[in-house]
Amino acid sequence: MTKNETAVFFQQLKNCSPGEIRSAIRRGDYSGQTSGLGLGYLQGNVAIVPSEYALDFFRFCQRNPKPCPLVGVTDGSSSLLRDLGKDVDIRSDVPAYNIYRNGDLVETKEDISDIWTDDLVAFVLGCSFSFEEALISEGIPIRHMDENKTVPMYRTNIATTAAGPFTGPLVVSMRPMSQTNAIRAINITSRFPQAHGSPVHIGDPATIGISDINSPDWGDATEIKAGEVPVFWACGVTPQAVIRSAKLPIFISHAPGHMLISDIKSWDTTRLQEPKL
After folding, report:
1. Please, what is the Cα angle at 256 between 267 and 87, to 5 degrees?
2. How far apart are CA 229 and CA 176, in angstroms?
3. CB–CB of 45/96 below 8 Å?
């Protein structure tokens, strides 16, 4: 599918339900980014680890709830996430997956059915895409959505709390806003703890170790216009930043910006039970 064809299909999918979007992804009809799709529904970052590392990763999420708000875990050898919706299959319902071996990114795939084994455990972490509709509904524009880009993401100098082999820097996503909207965004996003909650930093990127705001580590650069400030949220790509030091034999994640879209309303935390191993 060409870039133009992907853009056209994206516009068609914007009017579809989460189940319809997942079906299109599962068929291989769409493999693009998901910001702006499934508005009003909880989206999730994905981290898949061998079972021997699952407890350590579970602890990592508990110790770092801002970047890793845990909303779902597969049960036993199953690839289904029944708590997140009807027929949600972690092997095929994400538009693109990054495959890491021994800490190195080795390939990106649109389906992982051929490498899935019963020994793998999948974790789903809440995503900031889930609160974007709330910001838009309050009149706060989201530039990367308006431009159909992937939100820019950056490594920081903020350390996460280690668990087992999992240790490394916090990753943040950035959205430029006027100072007035930035203050409003704090109040709005604080109502979404399952989607990273309120920002972790506003203002000078250098303070959190970002030397060039125009060169994100993941995603697309987004212009910061006169009178605007960069607003940074903890990001579920954080596990991909810590995996290099963990050096797991295999680690599978979503490709940044390419999320799992659930059937859970983004505001309906009552339907989310605390995941357990």
Report:
1. 55
2. 6
3. no
Tokens of 49: 């680890």
Q: What is the pTM of this model?
A: 0.90
> What is the C-alpha to C-alpha distance for residues 208 and 215, in angstroms, rounded to an integer?
15
Does the structure show a pLDDT above 70 at 259?
yes
- Tell me, what DSSP letter sits at residue 266? T
d(CA 277, CA 267): 24
Q: Give the other-Cβ count within 10 Å of 179's Cβ.
A: 13
Residue 248 pLDDT > 60, yes or no?
yes
Q: What domains, with CATH codes, occur in the chain?
A: 3-127+244-270 (3.40.1640.10), 130-234 (3.30.2040.10)
Largest Cα separation within the chain, whole Å, is: 52
User: pLDDT tens across 191-236, in order?
Assistant: 999 899 999 999 999 999 999 999 999 999 999 999 999 999 999 9
Query: Does residue 164 come out as left (phi exceeding 0), alpha (psi in the -120 to 50 range) or beta?
Result: left
Which string of DSSP letters, residue by residue, matches 196-264? T-S-SEES-GGGGT-S-TTS-SBS------TTEEEEEEE-TTHHHHHHHHH--S-EEEEPTT-PEEEEE
Q: Are 109 and 96 in contact (CB under 8 A)?
A: yes
What gap in Å lies between CA 50 and CA 36, rounded to an integer? 32
CA 253 – CA 239 distance, rounded (Å) = 8
Using one digit for the tens of pLDDT, what is the confidence trace for 106-158?
A: 999 999 999 999 999 999 999 988 888 889 999 999 999 999 899 999 999 99
For the cut 90, the answer to whether the pLDDT of residue 269 exceeds it is no
Dihedral of alpha carbons 76, 80, 81, 85, sign: negative
